[in-house]
Amino acid sequence: MKLIHQTVDQLSSAIGISVSWFALIMVIITAIVVVFRYFLNLGSIPLQETIVYLHGALIMLAIGFALKNNAHVRVDVIHRRLGTRQKHWIEILGFALFLLPVAVLFLVTSFSYVSFSWSVLESSSAPGGLPGVFALKTLIPVMALLLLMQGISQTLKAIEALRS
What we know:
Layout: H1 2-19, H2 21-39, H3 45-61, H4 63-68, H5 76-79, H6 84-119, H7 133-163
């Protein structure tokens, strides 16, 4: 069990650290868009859409990393008052009751959505927009898998902690 959650944790960390660079790239591109628009009176739909694509990719690909590092939303008012064992039980129940059903729902329902997008090679509806909306939509089931895998890893760690 330990090997499973270590491998998933390493994968989540590698992906999270890699895509964290998207935030810097988004800031740079946003600055370029602002300069173009307000100083040169030029607009660039492809640059604006690049920011949207990077933002979507950052959020969807870093979701496992956020879960691994407890950077997700938690009801701390309750959580901070609990003992260690109770926190582990909350982790397990939270996975079983909330994370698992939501991740599976995203995974199952996204397949037809993504496959249709691929079948038409969906691109931006904006004039001069970027192609590859289908590729961005592909990240939906990938996000669900990353979330599911990291949720399993967190649950295994909680189970191990309860056993010791």
